[in-house]
Design brief:
About 75% of the residues lie in helices and about 0% in strands. The chain is built from five helices and no strands. The model has no long low-confidence stretch (mean pLDDT about 75).
């Protein structure tokens, strides 16, 4: 009984986290330079997004994995 209740709680918590992440990903504009994010959001929000790596340098955001892999092979 305890195990079933525990896993229901874990499943519900996971679904809530996934829902919040989906909403956040929809609201935040994608592929923008970091300066634009800093203008739009307050300092604490910008620092949080930067700390959890949500802000990727925009010039690298549109590169595919194959392009990045090919470029890294050429450098070595």
């Amino acid at each position: 009984m305890f195990v079933r209740t525990f896993f229901r709680g874990v499943l519900l918590g996971g679904l809530i986290i996934l829902s919040i992440a989906s909403i956040f990903g929809t609201i935040v504009e994608q592929n923008q330079p970091p300066e634009k994010y800093h203008k739009i959001y307050e300092d604490w929000a910008f620092a949080l997004m930067d700390r959890i790596n949500l802000i990727v340098e925009w010039k690298y955001a549109n590169r595919t994995f194959a392009t990045a892999t090919a470029e890294s092979r050429l450098r070595t």
